[in-house]
Protein-glutamate methylesterase/protein-glutamine glutaminase (Bradyrhizobium lablabi), 391 residues
Amino acid sequence: MSVALTSSSIPASTRQQPLRVMVVDDSVVIRGLISRWIEAEADMEVAASLRTGLDAVNQLERINPDVAVLDIEMPELDGISALPLLLAKKRNLIIIMASTLTRRNAEISFKALSLGASDYIPKPESTREVSAADIFHHDLIQKIRSLGAKLRRAVPSMPSPPLDRSREPSARPALPPLAQPHAHPQPPLVRRAFSIQAPRVLLVGSSTGGPQALMSLVAEIGPVIDRFPVLITQHMPPTFTTILAEHLARASHRPAHEAVDGEIIKAGQIYLAPGGRHMRVFKHAADAVIALDDGAPVNFCKPAVDPLFASAIDVWQGSIMAVVLTGMGSDGMRGGKEIVAAGGSVIAQDEASSVVWGMPGAAANAGICAAILPLNQIAPKLVRLFSGDRS
């Protein structure tokens, strides 16, 4: 069977319609599980449940999904091969790669991000593991909803009556509608003055869209890394963080690695929180030291940004520069508040350049940011601030 590559303008959904999700996985168990979760949500529906990437490519125009959950390992046409073919047919299709936690699949997921996938999600080794399945369920639905919300904001709203599900035999549970940030005029965001204290450390938090943003950022802040330590928390599972650290080292041409419990923090290094563990810092004599924490998730995340941000205050007081990059949720906002209260500064990525403006939006709307900048302006600003600029 041949794969026809055609470029077409498939109309996207209006805001009033549920998000149409195409599930592509060769496992009937996984397809059924994901489909049931999606159908339980009032703001999304299963547009199709398909076994192979080839089915997805050949049926895309007929199905017209908003979001595709795409497995990596499938017969006939695997996920990484299907990805560019799907995007060639529908440029604004949101694709979430799904794979089990292996190094090979993690590498493929990173490649998929560079080819246009919006995000990735690790599948549990066994759906019989209740806790793993619950995390997969929560994360997948949140990713679909957060990424879909941005797609809907980019499409002009067309008037249509709300869907009446009350008479359906098995009506879905009512959920609050997706936020529409541009539906009403928003008050201007408050910006604070930058701290008068010279920064001595750079802390970065990120989630959805973070790997691409981080690699872009570290490639341009060499002068900062050379003179100061850089600590990063990216919401990411084990194995994925190992590979992300390798990518960061290549992008920055500086040493980057997963942080090790008890190691002394030094300038010239990028420290990445390892998947599945919170990264905190503490002071021991004259040294700043890494502390890895195997505690409960914070903000549904492990690692989380808030533990890093909050713990850094005891080490560097007000001499902290924190950056909140693209990501869903609000992680980093509470820790950012504490940094600002201690005399430090926070920069947030702006909405237009963010894949999801959840985390940076939460920081911006909390009024704690000294700057809200496009991604390509954050690195030059950091270089100036760490070189003595205070404005």
User: Anything to note?
Assistant: Residues 32 and 77 are 20 Å apart (CA to CA). The first helix runs from residue 28 to 39. The two ends are 61 Å apart (CA to CA). The chain has twelve helices and 14 strands.
